[in-house]
Amino acid sequence: MPLTKVQFKPGINRESTRFADSQGWFDSNLIRFRKGRPEKIGGWERVSGSSVVGTVRSLKCWVTLDALKLMGVGTTSKFYLENGNAFYDITPIRSTATLGTNPFTSGSSGSGVITVTAVGHSAVEGDFVTFSGATAFDGLTTADLNKEQVIASIVSANSFTVDTGGSASSGSTAGGGSAVIANYQIHIGKEEVLSEAGFGAGFWGGQTLTYSQTTLDGGINDSVTSIALTSASDFETASTTTSAAVAIVDTTISLADSSGMPSRGTVKIDSENIEYRTNSGNVLSDITRGADGTTTATHSSGATVTFVGLIQVDDELIQYTGKSSNTLNAGVVRGAKGTSAAAHADGDIVKEANGFYGFGDAVAPFITGHPARLWSQDNWGEDVIMNVRDDNVYYWDATLGLSTRATALSAQTGASDAPTTARQVLVSDTDRHVICLGANTLGTTEQDLLLVRWSDQESAVDWTPQVTNTAGDQRLSSGSEIITGIETRQQILIWTDSSLYGMRFVGPPFTFSFNLLANNISIISPNAATAIGDRVFWMDKENFFVFTGQIQTIPCTVLRYVFDDLNYDKTLKFFAGANRMFNEVFWFYCSSSSDDVDRYVKYNYQDNTWDIGSLARTAWVDFGLHSKPRAAGVSDSLNYIYSHETGTTDDGAAMSPFIESSVFALGDGEQFSFISRLIPDADISSSDSDTTIDYVLKTRDYPGNSLTTNSTSSIKSSTEQAFLRSRARSAVLRVQSSATDVQWTLGDVRLDIRPDGRR
Question: What domains can you pick out in the chain, each with its CATH number?
Fold first, then answer.
């Protein structure tokens, strides 16, 4: 019988059954399609033997005027600059304090743990602090003390512990001298987040917005109204009076003095609780009258206005209006905001919960818990501007050297109204503006998640709008929050939770125009978009899109496979990456059974083919400054940067690439067929001529049967044919390899197939 050529259509197709997509490819890992042919992707290796602290979430490459090749590396704990395979820690300093005399107290003999007395430190567990000027004591050397330390635990608002790594001689000894200086780095970020919100999220539809915390100083039952805390210094109390009468229909409250009131929260006037979200110019606005089940009423000018504090202990919210020393003992309401009063043990954590939104409140979508730390970064010439998502904006000056830390943008020389809170920062390269998305409003600390602000042209520090400059702002009207933005050659695309905008430089007097490009469209994650030339590719919660001047849905042959297997609670970790070497776009995501990124889907935009696979990565940057793409990943719980498309291995270990076909019928399926021979067509590259790849034939008789591995043939570059003994009605071909030194590309396989009866 003549040989039968089996030709498979390019791309992985999971949108139909394995039998219906006969002679297509069904499954893959670590392969790509190039000109329609499947091949193993290139390997990867570490760019440095050094790891970084924290999970990497942002990579950006640029070059300085001194020709230094730099890569910004933003992690959940730090911000680094990489140069010459070395990492330089430029994480900003939050505050600097001179501690009191002998601020250290050793623990037990033989231990390196010390307690540090630092009044009002505001640190959290896991933060980094660097001590200098300390003198040796109790067997602990200056080298043990004067270095970067990790805060192991928070004892109180005025003390914490660190493990110096030394060994105390006696224990319980005070020391350190009178000249100890503590440099506190910005708070570490979180690894995890629940990125979905809505009805029932967190507490009963609620959200906590601030995170000062302490512990209970003594246990409480479900009925006590006096709450003793380890320290109450960070928990607000305030009282003032109204400066004008308040009618039932009023939506603003004028106060004699609002300086002691937080930026948002709840106040009590007579017997009415009133929630507010804006505190500006002694006026509370964006208010909810008759909050917490109270009754809306009129109030006279000069009526007492008391701030209602809110704390969280376990799953209970507790209101209070006053405190004495470290005890909340005035206006205490247990089981507030629909929670249940409960008993709590001595030492239980107490969190500030002011700004909690209760059930029925009209609020923007939110993220439950502490959001995972994401960095945005962009180069301003040779310098870099970076931003912790929904936190401060920082600036690093290249002229000060790699050992100099970044500092707040608002603290730079000549800074004027620079944002102190933003969701994302980027630079418009063509017109030289720094842009902050979701920034604080001008003149306040209040973040507006729909506000876009930009600096004066050619200035990173002047943000005060004037007729003589181009600084300004624009609030988007569609949606409730900005998710992300990305620069293209022609404009900046900005996604809200429900819309896509185009931001284009038009010059004075408006500087930028904002065009609503589409409604009812969004993006699944802040990092789920990538720009390649004039095209922007992104992923939302149900499809893939490309913008080429107009928005187009990308036909996807693995759509159901991907979106039916997403962990939607971890979407903040999802990200996109481009590999222009092979005309590819990756989307890395957490599968439904994983809390960390473990899978990818890849699109070849030149050939319009898709493939899938497993690869744990946390950030990606395309080639350009470096000759190969770079990505961040975890190995043995350590965080490394890898150079991709380098070599043929997984950092020295064997890769596990494979591609597996859909079911192809042997004849018309009426009779059994006998397969006796396989003629491979594969380009196998290896330094060893004996290196093999495996052709695996799986068979079944009916679509409802399980596939059975029938034969495996190890194929070398010199193999002419392989002999088989397989009898079935249909078959699947799988090609795989496990050698370290091998690269392969597949052609068309030919099989010797003969009819072999009906039974």
Answer: 4-42+655-755 (2.60.120), 46-89 (no CATH), 93-185 (2.40.30.20), 213-352 (no CATH), 375-644 (2.130.10.10)
